[in-house]
Amino acid sequence: MVRDPPPAALRHAFPLRSLLLAALLVPVLAFAAVAWRDHARVQDDAKRAVDRIVAIAQEHALKVIETNALILDRIEDGVRGLSWDEIAARDREVHEALRALDSRIEQINVLHLIRPDGRLAAISIAYPAPSVDLTERAYFQRHLAGERGLVFGDPVVGRTSGQVNFTMSRARAAPDGRFDGVVLGSVMPEYFQRHWATLADGADAHFGLMRADGALLARMPPPPSLETRVPQDDPLMRAIAAGAERGVVEANPALDGTRRLVGFRRVGSQPLYVFYALSLDAVHAEWLHHAAVNGALTLLAVLALAGAALVAARRWTAEQRALAELARSATELRAEIARREAAEEELRAAQRLEAVGRLTGGVAHDFNNLLTAILGSLQLLERHLERGGAAASGQPDARARHLVAIARDAVERGSRLTASLLAFSRRQALRVEPLDVNALVGGMAPLLRRALGEAVELRLELGPGLPHCMGDAAQLEVALLNLVINARDALPPEGGLVTLRTFRADPAARPGEGQVGITVSDTGSGMSPEARARAFEPFFTTKPVGKGTGLGLSQVYGVVRQLGGEVTIDSAPGQGTTVLIRLPEADPAVVAAAAAPAGAARPAGMAGEGQPAAGIIPPAGRRSVLVVEDDLAVREMAAETLREAGWQVSEAPDGRVALAMLAAGERFDLLFTDVVMPGGISGQELAETARRLCPGLAVLLASGYVGEAQPREDGSGGGAPFPLLGKPYDRAALIAAANAALREASCSDAAPEASAALTTPSVAAARIDATA
């Protein structure tokens, strides 16, 4: 049996129920007020969004119409003053002009030139123009009736092009003002549809371009037929008929029975309107979504108990803070691990490249010794064949000379290969000086464009006011040329874009303490992460066999690092490649000193250009030279070459033997020594000691890589650098360098304040004609 509650309980329950009812009614009433205001807000937001989007569409349509009008003006200007007979006589020229204009304007499909009798005189897509009579077209009849402004025709399927388009035409007037034909362009609705697709805010959005009479020239989605028109009783047409040039109405321009918010705007002063229609269902759906969220929150607020909500909120807040702190710690830990792994990988790559660089430097040194011996022997053999052939029959053996020439070419190719290896290993001598990178790039532009070819566009973006950087102009030019050629090879056959940009890498740095940046970017195929990681390794290449040695980027890497700079690659498959070079800025004082007039002073003892310096030089046949070289084949070749040139030659296998000969009182005019030799005495140390023993002794150094002849890091053995002959060298280079070193020493005796460092080019860089 159910008992009735006691009266006291009923009395206490009534206020509780009233409070409960109030707790329910107040949130519900508040929810209703918020929902009503939210409904109005969503409507206003939708109208503003529609008006904003239709404004963008109207601006685009206006630019298209104005551009097309300019094209029609260009056509009319091109035939202005010409009779139709003259135009017919120049129909090929007129067609090419129309075709050139048509190809540059994407939205125009076909350009026409129509005679006063309605016959087609010229068309951009066909030559000769087909025989077509256009007198029945509405636009022609309007121009014939006296319309002189722009006329927009109905969408039609072109007789010649076969594509859907609407026409935009202007009458051509004779000098006396009478009608003299029509200039017409066919505009593609698809061009507008592509632009509208980027603005569409949902699948149910509609765009349109229509005339003031309701004819749809273009619509997205396309209308069911070309004759579709917006009815005159539609609110959109009523607003236009009332003179409104812009606004937002509820209408149905899609003609599908769905009411929409339609924003419209007039296109300039033309009888054209652009509209954008957004379904009211979408607006209502957004409002219902907001209402559902607000209702759910209200329901939760009514049902939740204050104490439980407070406890739950505090607990939840504490848990979220703990989770956020844990997530932040985990994120920082992962980021630190990733940074450390990246740094370790970069370190391993740098160590690998450094090890390969040391290896290539040593290999190049030994290889240059071999090339020197081979080249010298070939030249001696060639001279022997000339003398032997002349003595026997008056003519040297042509086949033997041809084979010797082939071998010399092979030596030269090997020399170029070792030069690239030395550049990577940072063992080459650089002429470091302040450089104006903008001037260097500007001077190279014609060469770079020839290297890229006609299909590739070269764009220069030179930073204004760029400070000088420290670099070697010749090596930097070679590096940029290598990068541009690599960019060209990465582009497709139809061409692309290569951009060379200069800038100050760190604008906030003080003058002389920053870096100058150079980037070479292309729009080519890009590089995979694996290829990018190995890009600077020598002999690594992704090009087909025979298309590259894989030394281009490694040479760039070596030169930039030797200059104290940095080089990095940013690339991804299909995203192109950007190579960034950063070189140290030049100190302003150094730049100012380098800019001093070059002719302010000339070293004493130096005559005018092309004239030998004053001094006493022993005559040919009495010049003596001490050849110091640990490689027997190279030493014998050099000694034999100098003997043939009239020198008296003595030989020594290392520095100790050479010093013993000098200490014993033997006197020589020239000391010709290799730089790296066994026995604990280098060629430079030998030259410095020999100069102290014989102050007037001329010195010429030779090296498999010129980096060996740089001053030692401890600063000992200082003094002016000696002339250096790079290996491999040929007969002419050796004789020329020896004579130049002898002249320099004689000049120094005549005027001690004069000094000049001579570096003679190797056979791979230049050939010097000289005789013994």
What do these coordinates show?
This protein has 772 residues and is an alpha+beta fold. The strands form 5 sheets. Strands 1, 2, 3, 4, 5 and 6 form a 6-stranded antiparallel sheet that branches. Strands 20-19-21-22-23-24 form a 6-stranded parallel sheet, sandwiched between helices. Helix 9 packs across helix 13 (552-562). It is elongated and about 120 Å long.
Short description:
With 772 residues, this protein is of the alpha+beta class. 47% of the residues lie in helices and 18% in strands.
Features:
6-stranded antiparallel beta sheet, 772 residues, 18 helices, alpha+beta, 6-stranded parallel beta sheet, 47% helix, elongated
Radius of gyration equals: 43 Å
Largest sheet: 6 strands, antiparallel
> Helix fraction?
40-55%
How much is the average pLDDT?
77
Distance between the termini: 139 Å
Strand segment tally? 24
Spans where pLDDT lies below 50 across 5 or more residues: 8-13, 598-615, 706-720, 750-772
- Give the overall shape, derived from the CA principal axes: elongated
Task: Tell me the layout of helices and strands.
Blueprint lengths: L6 H72 L5 H6 L1 H14 L3 E7 L5 E4 L14 H7 L6 E2 L3 E2 L6 E10 L5 E9 L1 H11 L6 E6 L4 E5 L14 H7 L4 E6 L8 E7 L5 E8 H24 L2 H87 L5 H27 L8 E3 L1 H16 L3 E7 L6 E3 L1 H18 L5 E9 L10 E8 L6 H5 L18 H11 L3 E6 L5 E8 L3 H7 L29 E5 L3 H13 L3 E5 L2 H9 L6 E5 L8 H11 L4 E6 L20 E3 L4 H20 L8 E2 L12
Parallel strand pairs: 13-15, 19-20, 19-21, 21-22, 22-23, 23-24
Antiparallel strand pairs: 1-2, 1-6, 3-5, 4-5, 5-6, 7-8, 7-11, 9-10, 10-11, 12-14, 15-16, 16-18, 17-18
